[in-house]
Write a structure and sequence with these properties.
The protein has 500 residues and is of the alpha/beta class. The chain folds into two domains: 347 residues, Alkaline Phosphatase, subunit A (3-Layer(aba) Sandwich); 101 residues, Arylsulfatase, C-terminal domain. The chain has 14 helices and 17 strands. Bound molecules: calcium ion. The site of calcium ion (CA) has 7 residues, from loops.
Length: 500
């Protein structure tokens, strides 16, 4: 019987292949794939916040930070309730986002060393083609406004990695008030300092330093509006804009007029953080206005999310998720996320199935009719048909998070409604994060087989990892060797008795 089934399935596979090869002849040289070739190619606007808490937007239940413009997009778009990023902090999360791969597979497990442009000159390996390059190759006019954090020297510059236009800063963050950071920068420069902190350097436009005068969040919103409105530069081509706000990442610096709106919040950090998020929302409103007034809103996919969870010590709120930035608990890498595209993305829906930021690479490429280079490995998947239909894009498949600590690794594995979690040197736990997003009730004893499968899966994935190309903080390099961390000692032991 089994043999007959095998023969039958081999026959159907041949049939499918024949059908596929017939179908492939119809569009001939057209690289647009069959799922999307009838739709016009959308503009793609990807808005990223830095360290924004899960509950710090109205559409995820914030009661003390009004975000009316984001909420309006969410109400006329779809909220991704289980949107994950590839890593619980900045650099590796962004490396994953632009490559569509987990950063552990190409040596980018850690943030770039601080001030790397003045020191070691590190950057994300050129073996990885960024999504910007793929979309640029498909005729998109591509821009990035804001934080880069993927390599500050010329060979890793945004302009050589697929972005026609770059306005922003190359490091991992920036001070917000030019009138405050510029005098410090100019003094240090006059003193002849060889290394000046990234957070103080002038912003740049395509490699040329600019004399910015506005509060940085407002400046980035202004530049996004400029890019969107600049049709002369673009002609008939659609655009891809990656707007990477550094807000509300530290330092906590907000405009006085915004702070006054939150005078009722007693905690100073929370008050400042709230004012910073409010400034982002104001910018989003200006950007949506620009899209509307130039007649582009209806043909623009907007994706909004954060690069990792909120930092609790700096005033963020990830309720109902556990912990925050840096953690492999849900609060570390399950982020506020939503998508908007009138008439295409369902309005007023919450999509509860897992979405990974790694999915944007193949999903955008498909929507753009762009060809992903042969041999380019991508860990995410094109979620578009499932996302639009409201079905799971990865039933039975997993999303990982792994953070290396001194001597051990924290790990999260999401599969359907389940989440396996390993923290510190504790044993593995299992949670139903659909019903228990706060990861409070361990159900590993009820579901031992599921836990075992999920741990085996992450163990297999770990075999694809490469050694880090840099360490941050630098002391971790010694830990990496001392504890033989590349072999993940003890990480995949499920029970204490598993230990060899
Ligand atoms: Ca971040």
């Amino acid at each position: 019987m089994k043999r007959i089934i095998k023969q039958l399935s081999a026959l159907s596979l041949i049939l499918i292949l024949i059908l596929m090869s017939c179908g492939a002849k119809t569009p001939s040289a057209d690289p647009i794939d069959s799922e999307t070739n009838t739709a016009p190619r959308p503009n793609i606007l990807m808005i990223l916040c830095d360290d924004l808490g899960y509950a710090d937007v109205g559409f995820n239940g914030s009661t003390d930070i009004p975000t009316p413009h984001l909420d309006s997009l969410a109400a006329t778009g779809t909220v991704c309730a289980s949107g994950y990023v590839a890593h619980p902090f900045c650099g590796p999360s962004r490396a994953g986002l632009l490559t569509g791969r987990y950063p552990h597979e190409f040596g980018s497990q850690f943030n770039l060393p601080v001030n790397s442009d003045d020191l070691g000159g590190e950057g994300i390996t050129l073996n990885e083609t960024f999504i910007s390059k793929v979309l640029q190759g498909a005729g998109y006019h591509t821009g990035i406004v804001g934080k880069w954090h993927l390599g500050g020297v010329d060979q890793y510059h945004p302009n050589v990695r697929g972005f026609d236009d770059f306005y922003g800063f190359l490091g991992g963050g920036h001070r917000y008030f030019p009138e405050q950071y510029r005098p410090i920068y100019e003094r240090q420069k006059a003193e002849g300092r060889k290394v000046i902190d990234d957070y103080l350097k002038p912003l740049e436009h395509n490699g040329q330093p600019v004399r910015e005068t506005e509060y940085i969040t407002d400046a980035l919103s202004r530049e996004a509006v400029r890019f969107i409105s600049d049709e002369e530069q673009r002609g008939e081509d659609p655009f891809f804009l990656y707007l990477a706000y550094n807000a509300p990442h530290s330092p906590l610096e907000a405009k006085e007029e915004d702070l006054q709106l939150f005078a009722h919040i007693k905690d100073k950090k929370r008050r400042t953080y709230a004012a910073m998020v409010y400034a982002v929302d104001r910018g989003v409103g200006q950007i949506v206005d620009a899209l509307e007034s130039t007649g582009q809103l209806d043909n623009t996919l907007i994706v909004f999310f954060s690069d990792n969870g909120g930092k609790l010590k700096l005033g963020a709120n990830n309720t109902p998720l556990r912990e925050g930035k840096g953690s492999t608990c849900e609060g570390g890498y399950r982020v506020p996320m939503m998508m908007h595209w009138p008439g295409v993305v369902p309005a007023g829906r919450r999509y509860e199935y897992p979405v990974s930021a790694l999915d944007f690479y193949p999903t955008f490429a498909s929507l753009a009719g762009a060809k992903i280079p042969t041999g380019k490995k991508v860990d995410g998947k094109n979620i578009w048909p499932s996302f639009i239909n409201g079905t799971s894009a990865r039933e039975g498949e997993v999303i990982y998070a792994m953070r290396h600590r001194p001597g051990y690794s924290d790990i999260g594995v999401r599969r359907d409604e389940l989440k396996a979690l390993k923290l510190s040197k504790d044993t593995w736990r299992l949670y139903n994060v659909m019903t228990d997003p706060g990861e409070t009730t361990d159900i590993s004893e009820q579901y031992p087989d599921e836990l075992r499968e999920m741990v085996r899966s992450v163990e297999q994935w770990s075999e694809t990892h490469t050694e880090p190309l840099w360490y941050n903080p630098p002391e971790l390099e010694q830990d990496w060797t001392d504890y033989d961390m590349g072999t993940f000692p003890g990480a995949f032991d499920i029970l204490k008795s598993d230990k060899k």
